[in-house]
Amino acid sequence: MTTSPTAKFKRILLKLSGEALNGPQGFGIDPDRANIIAHKIRAVRELGAEIGIVIGAGNLWRGQIGIDRGMAQPTADHMGMIATVMNGLALQDALERVGIPTRVQTAVQMNTVAEPYIRLRAVRHMEKERVVILTGGTGNPYFTTDTAAALRAMEISADILIKATKVNGIYTADPKKDPTATRLTNLTYQEVLASRYEVMDMTAFTLCQENNLPILVLNFDAEHDLVDAVKGDTSVGTLVSATGKL
Question: Is the pTM of this model over 0.70?
């Protein structure tokens, strides 16, 4: 596809929650939502950015539910990893239908439905203008998809990890509970730790901090926020980095 290189970032890792695929019923995979996501990602790809995606599984399975009822955590976690592959395949289908060549790779091998995760192959796909959906978590239990996103972002040499949420950044308090809460546009890693802001789980956050990988938290449902952020609009979301700047 023809792209105009207007993206500020050459390569991004986009972390999506499984709930992004929820429909009106509040669970499962909604093809209409997948289509909306695909169009947003196509708009970013048309800016010239190379894209890797890690998606969660909360719309299909939450391991904690099984654990609370006596299920072994490795079993519950592996079920979640498999669910991320289902989400990845649904998103791949939606992307292909809007003209974006896409590959699904998985850390939990399922050779009949997806490629095994191989770092250099993932990078090569992106260099060939394909979107790569990185599923199966890290391939190991006890790690979240946040940690998988941080790890994969490092492995593919992403310039930034964009965490897509339902709020437009990090606030001083829960904006749903505290009307005085204010959005913070820039934070350092140390400020996040000192104020105990919830950005990602601690393993994922520490991995980003130790490798100096910027994190941008934004509202995925806002019509233009993702595209504007990739263009370099600093008013979008909350940026977390070593200095609070890029």
Answer: yes
